[in-house]
Amino acid sequence: MGRHSAAASANNQSTKIRKTTVSNISGGSNDSEIVAQAIDLTKTYGDKDAQVVALDHVDVSFIRGQMTAIMGPSGSGKSTLMHCMAGLDQPTSGKVIVEGLEVSSMNQRQLTKLRREQIGFIFQSFNLVPTLTAEENILLPLQIAKRPIDRAWFNKVVDVVGLRSRLTHRPSQLSGGQQQRVACARAIMARPSVIFADEPTGNLDSHSSREVLGFLKNSVREYGQTIVMVTHDPRAASYADRVLVLADGRITQDLQHPTYEEILEVFAGEGDEVADQQEVAQ
Ligand SMILES: Nc1ncnc2c1ncn2[C@@H]1O[C@H](COP(=O)(O)OP(=O)(O)OP(=O)(O)O)[C@@H](O)[C@H]1O
């Protein structure tokens, strides 16, 4: 399905779904709970003749202690939004604010500090260091940042992700699900303000996906962790408190606590594409 028809399909569905506007979310009494915010965010690639508008004046706020899923067709701007929010990519115009700090105007040194101290990452490909054990991988970001290691917190995180008996194993000696649980533990160990997860279950079978999503959700419920997760998988998105749908670089849906069926309904017109991507992911 083309990108314009995808957007139209999403808009057509919007009347059927509980919908909260971005201004409702970002305004009013919730202001103190905003962890990360995009204001009039635009990102274009290429020059005038071959310009791609990856993000088109996006306004969105992410609330502390919530898990948000970002969905949308391929090329709709999901990764670009997440990369701009995490300070991995520079917007063309507009602002990104994390914990009250303007990320979009930071220099490299400030960005490195921000990513070390405030932001956790989980990638589809796990991104573990192959020569280090699970324990060493989990502790690596804290050691690089020269931050003290809270052993009680480490033990809690290790037990929650069920890695106690695997701490001395290297990534190659672990299953995909176990490797992703190491990556989750690594992300949460530093207690970041927000964890950005890019297709965290994209390389996992359905059993391992459920384990990883269960752990992520648990970290939101029990420790107030804030998570923003890009996913093509409606099942994964149904674990989230909120689902944002992007099309052509704009947010076309903002759903609070949607059920799996409601998420499927949003993509009913482009079900083949979602189903295909889900199949590839599993
Ligand atoms: N470095 C780049 N140079 C040029 N165009 C780019 C670049 N990165 C992204 N784009 C374009 O920006 C648009 C948004 O890309 P983005 O990767 O954010 O989409 P996405 O929704 O994450 O897609 P997918 O689901 O396929 O990963 C696409 O049209 C893409 O081709």
TrEMBL record:
Species, as recorded: Bifidobacterium hapali
- What is this protein identified as? ABC transporter ATP-binding protein
**Cellular component GO terms, alphabetical:** membrane protein complex; plasma membrane
**Source domain of life:** Bacteria
Positions of the ABC transporter domain: 36-273
- Compositionally biased spans, kind Polar residues: 8-24
- Which Gene3D superfamilies does the record match to this protein? P-loop containing nucleotide triphosphate hydrolases (3.40.50.300)
**SUPFAM superfamilies associated with the record:** P-loop containing nucleoside triphosphate hydrolases (SSF52540)
Q: Which UniProt keywords apply?
A: ATP-binding, Nucleotide-binding, Transport
Q: Give the span(s) annotated as Disordered.
A: 1-24
Q: Name one GO molecular function term.
A: ATP binding
Q: Which SMART domains has this protein been placed in?
A: AAA
Recorded hits in CDD domains, A to Z, give: ABC_MJ0796_LolCDE_FtsE
